[in-house]
């Protein structure tokens, strides 16, 4: 297959200080991007600059630094909002996708879900998009159904359709599986779930960093994602929520900044999005995320997606030629994000990851926070290689060479 990179990977790599280092005396081949990505110097510098020059508590003071900190924090919100085609009122800072999903569970779920209600999830969800709903179901007496998967690792559309016939109150699904890589048609699923009367919660942790995102076109009620999976700092993430729903929703956490007035008899809530941002926020993290958005925009999200698709197609081709490897999920790169999960013979994925690490190749092994999916596929664990803008075809060659070495070590 043609090894044509649509990005200048050699130039991009120069922007990432960590990619200049070696691991065990070998070039670092970082293929664990679905867990967390690396940060370009622009993101590191933006947080250092914020702390060195502008740090104060946003929204709190009238002194110069507080005004500068507010401007930096709100400027970052504007960048993220336009990145996903949302308004700033609908763009809430959280600690990450997990907290965003919990915000919906508490803010919407607590006051709307009743005994006997149906919550629809899928068998390819990350624990972050399962456990909050299980707790909500336990608390309210709601029930949960999981949409099954086809042999290829796509959603079982007939099953989804049957469940929509039962008028669910919540339909929560991942836009892109962190294990199978499967990309779900979020716009179509959201439209169908809405016709069934449900609110739609999309887990965008593995999609927003990797492809163009437009929440209006997607038509979902909520979209959750994390900064650290898109070149940004850890501890910062986003919940997009449709304005009308956020307006009528109860706060999640409570305290400073989320109120309009507090009296001994009670309190009223601040305007959106502040109603959902209690306490001092991670403003440096937000600024870093804004810089990450600038960096991604300077490349263009369509080019990011095209690049990852080319790498994934190449990896799938190489792996399908490799004896003894089982790849999980769709085998067509168009249907999946830059995630390739696999097993080789009886080699335990942890042993595989350790062996690859000796070659400088960083991959993830384990259940990938998707134990129901592991049970469905009847495997205890998997190895996973996942790609981003600084990965090249050479990185995949390095992975394949390391896999050949592993096969020899284990005498397969
Ligand atoms: N959903 C998916 C699909 C994920 O891959 C992850 C992270 N592995 C999460 C949710 C949770 O993200 P975070 O840990 O950043 O909150």
Any descriptors?
single chain; 412 residues; alpha/beta; Aspartate Aminotransferase, domain 1; Aspartate Aminotransferase, domain 2; 2 domains; 7-stranded mixed beta sheet; 4-stranded antiparallel beta sheet; 17% strand; globular; binds 4'-deoxy-4'-aminopyridoxal-5'-phosphate
Summary of the model, kept short:
The chain has 14 helices and 17 strands.
Topology:
Elements (H helix, E strand, L loop, with lengths): L8 H6 L7 E2 L2 E2 L1 E2 L10 H14 L9 H20 L7 E4 L2 H16 L5 E5 L8 H10 L2 E5 L9 H8 L5 E5 L11 H10 L3 E5 L11 H4 L3 E5 L10 E5 L1 H6 L10 E5 L2 E4 L13 H17 L1 H20 L4 E4 L10 E6 L4 H10 L2 E2 L1 E3 L4 H7 L4 E5 L6 H17 L3
Parallel strand pairs: 3-15, 5-6, 5-7, 7-8, 8-9
Antiparallel strand pairs: 1-2, 4-10, 9-10, 11-12, 13-14, 14-17, 16-17
Helix pairs in contact: 2-10, 3-10, 4-5
As for the number of domains, it is: 2
State the major sheet.
7 strands, mixed
Query: Looking at the structure, what is the overall shape?
Result: globular
- Which blocks of ≥5 consecutive residues have pLDDT under 50? none
- Structural class call reads alpha/beta
Bound molecules: 4'-deoxy-4'-aminopyridoxal-5'-phosphate
Q: What does the average pLDDT come to?
A: 97
* Name given to the CATH architecture of the largest domain: 3-Layer(aba) Sandwich
CATH fold-type name of the largest domain: Aspartate Aminotransferase, domain 2
